[in-house]
Amino acid sequence: MVPKPVPAAVFDFGIPAKLFWHFSPRHYVYVNGKAISTMNKMKLIRIFAKNSLLTGRKPLWARMRRLLWAAALLLPAFAVRADVVFTNLYSFTGTNNGANPQAALVQGSDGFFYGTTYGGGAYTNQYGVGCGTVFKINTNGWLTSLYPFGSIQDTNGNPLDGGNPQAALVQGSDGYFYGTTYSGGTNLWSGTVFKISTNGVLTTLYSFTGGNDGANPQVALVQGSDGYFYGTTPTEGGPFGLHRGTVFKISTNGTLNTLYSSPGDYSGSSNGLFHGRDGNFYGSTSGLSYRCYFVGFLCYSGGAVFAIPPMAR
Fold first, then answer.
1. Is the whole-model pTM more than 0.85?
2. Which among 67, 148, 210, 279 is least surrounded, fewest beta carbons within 10 Å?
């Protein structure tokens, strides 16, 4: 980036200079014809002290006041940097503790943070890929692997209890944590909805079929005021295998209702839902649909923002 010149008259720590230092996106200023990085704060203070304090006929207090203004502007930056402390609480090894977490943590009512890993874990699928885990961790970095997906498999190595979770967990009003897996389940690779207790007892509530109920959920569930959990799937079986997507609700005992199955006008609901104060659920779609324009063999559209009532079906 080309340095931005600053006239000598301005670089006298008057108001223009103060505003420039705080709000200019540039990283350099010119002093006596030389470009100096604004990150080199001590050098700039020394130059100002030499040019302004040791020369001229202005009273010493007037010149000192300008130096104090400069220090006031610069010293907070040093304090902010000194306060930034990064603490690595835990490093996954890719073995039984899991690998590659892809979703946010959620803090439970017990103070622990709960999360999932997409890969790793004690079990692998038929392709040799780790099925992922559910874990909890405290603020001191003590991690407990609560459940390894793939604990239950069919003869082909498909994880019947789900695999490769991508979404964050949500703690329900009953104290259980609810989540989804991207793959696995009793219908090959369509994914599941599950609940798990704080001590690691997992129950598979539902296995997606890849039909009108959708497949491969990727985002966190949202609990409504009615106690049901609401979510989306980005894909659905259907004509031509297009990625149409669904919106669904599921009870705590695993009864799932598909609230909306895209007819192709809006699709690819891979984003999460938000429960509005008016009772409706709001979300957005990524855009693959019947109503689209073709570029080569690919079909595109602009996506949409939608609202859906909790009793849509």
1. no
2. 279
